[in-house]
């Protein structure tokens, strides 16, 4: 099954980003396709390559990137939300791409399910 | 799915405007979804009904007043705006205080409408 | 003590908790999404307020939400200048986040 | 429909609103700060659930909060794999944010 | 003010752990405040009482378990941990389920304690 | 009077950053001293120089910076919170500085009032 995921909150502040990542991982392990992860609102902050969490904590940005590297998951950051919040090509982590809201609508059309994670 | 697919998208608005950005950024998705020729509905319930209150004036808070966008939705053929009656009543609001024409639904009818959608996005 | 509440009481429990801990002589300032409390339709949420609690509402936030000038009787509208005056007048500030 | 709620009912109104709109045959998954609802001490918040609503709780979130294995009777614990199965089994998903 | 000033700092915790970062980052401020030799109190009320529930195990969520820090507070001479009785009871919790020794106060006593502070920080 | 301000949420997502700025401006106009603005939690995102909001919207980061430029207000970003969220010297806007939580405690000690803005 094709599942799209929408992430509306940034890393660390809320659990949404953690739950969304754990969900994606389990979906892939169960043989589903994560059609796309779309980052909206503060969710765009999941895509900064400048994070450096404490050594004894998880690295949320790198975890997302590994979904792209290992499973080819399309990680899309909303350009309008990103510009408001200072996420641009210069600080975009590898594995993510910046694009428009049309990518979210396309997910809604193409995927069998859309699962939203937020505050 | 082919490019001609039309799905029922419902945008569920449960939060007041300005206190958080969800109402504003939700509208941006609504407009794009309409541009993709999808079947778009907006549901306003709980504090989401406050988004439609007339006379919003953001000069003194220095934020952008995005409420005129609700009036512009018609121009994008977005005409399905549903407001939950129980939410209005609990907040002492009447339909006359809203800035745009809406269909007022009972909670039960709103629930049925939600259950008929293909994609439900909540902001 | 100046208590500050910024959330709607129909969404969160912040106002209820604040009112349960506020005392006579304290002041309460409603800002952001809490300003709905200051209108005729929302005032019922203040029923649990202790006697002697002075209630204020931030008028720029009322105006933004289409409720300019609609503060219910007994609730004083203040602008940001008035907000600052409340902070200075009360010995401490507690935000109910 | 799979309904997802992630907030505590003593902090926010999300669960109450979800229950008022859920229908028989739907499923409800409690995650993050909503898992407190699934315990003996929190289950009263489900009194308004419609008949025929299947209620699940995400066990990793229960464990994180010191409540592993403490789901009340009638509420099924699922892990992330079970979360995915619920999403696949129900025709649509609605998150009550 | 001189460097020797000692103020009463109260940290008000009203939110559950893990769903948001406030509980964890609040603890970081608590530790630093103690290092400045201030008079530190922690108040747990509403969903904040959940922060102290025993047996937290974050392995399956992949987050950091910060609950041992509450036990370590004593080592920093932070001994004023107040929990509101009404909040415990409303959640079906007892003192025995908490991971650290606390003083359980009535809501009225908690309110009086709050009113005596110099600085109240809420997270 | 010396007033310290604590900002716990990022720009645009919540109104907190707007309200805090309006409060600071009014306090300065009334002759008070803003002893410091401390940015904690997602509040650190107020300090990125990479934001580019729509032309018809306010520029929250620049507004903060102007408080520093015009009134010398000390704008301090918590280093631990900032590292978790990808705010570092490389993307720090002019007028802000990165420092430790001790600066917040110092504000509590030195200021006559601490006012917190958050979610």
Summarize the structure.
Chain B is an alpha/beta fold and 123 residues long.
In words, what does this structure look like?
- The complex is a heterohexamer, with two copies of chain A (119 residues), two copies of chain B (123 residues) and two copies of chain C (97 residues).
- In chain A, 35% of the residues lie in helices and 22% in strands.
- With 119 residues, chain A is an alpha/beta fold.
- Chain A has one domain: Hypothetical Protein Ychn, Chain: A, CATH 3.40.1260.
- Chain A has a five-stranded parallel sheet with strand order 4-3-2-1-5, with helices on both faces.
- In chain A, helix 2 links the parallel strand 2 and strand 3 (75-78).
- The longest helix of chain A has 14 residues, at 16-29.
- Chain B is α/β, with parallel strands linked by helices.
- Chain B has one domain: DsrEFH-like (Hypothetical Protein Ychn, Chain: A).
- Chain B is globular.
- A five-stranded parallel sheet of chain B has the order 4-3-2-1-5.
- Chain B contains four helices and five strands, in the order βαβαβαβαβ.
- Chain B starts with 7 loop residues before the first strand and ends with a strand.
- With 97 residues, chain C is an alpha/beta fold.
- Chain C has one domain (2-96): Hypothetical Protein Ychn, Chain: A (3-Layer(aba) Sandwich), CATH 3.40.1260.
- Chain C contains three helices and five strands.
- Chain C has helices spanning 14-21, 59-64, 80-89, and strands at 2-5, 27-30, 54-58, 76-78, 93-95.
- In chain C, strands 4-3-2-1-5 form a five-stranded parallel sheet.
- The radius of gyration of chain C is 12 Å and the shape is globular.
- Chain C starts with a strand and ends with a strand.
- The model of chain C has no long low-confidence stretch (mean pLDDT 97).
- Chains in contact: A-B, A-D, A-E, A-F, B-C, B-D, B-F, C-D, C-E, C-F, D-E, E-F.
- The A-F interface holds A 10-13, 41-42, 45, 48-54, 57, 61, 80, 83-88, 90-91 and F 10-13, 41-42, 45, 48-54, 57, 61, 80, 83-88, 90-91.
Question: Can you give keywords for this protein?
Answer:
heterohexamer, B: 123 residues, alpha/beta, Hypothetical Protein Ychn, Chain: A, five-stranded parallel sheet, 5 strands, 20% strand, C: 97 residues
Question: SSE string of chain C, helix = H, strand = E?
Answer: EHEEHEHE
Instruction: Quote the CATH topology of chain C.
Output: Hypothetical Protein Ychn, Chain: A
CATH class of chain C, anyone?
A: Alpha Beta
SSE pattern of chain B, N- to C-terminal: EHEHEHEHE
User: With helices defined by DSSP (H or I, 4 residues minimum), what is the helix count of chain C?
Assistant: 3
Number of domains of chain B: 1
The number of helical segments of chain B is 4
Oligomeric grouping of the chains: heterohexamer
Which stretches of chain C are low in confidence, meaning pLDDT under 50 for 5 or more residues running? none
What Rg of chain C, in angstroms, do the CA atoms define? 12 Å
Count of discrete domains of chain C: 1
What is the averaged pLDDT score of chain C? 97
Q: Major β-sheet of chain C, in short? A: 5 strands, parallel
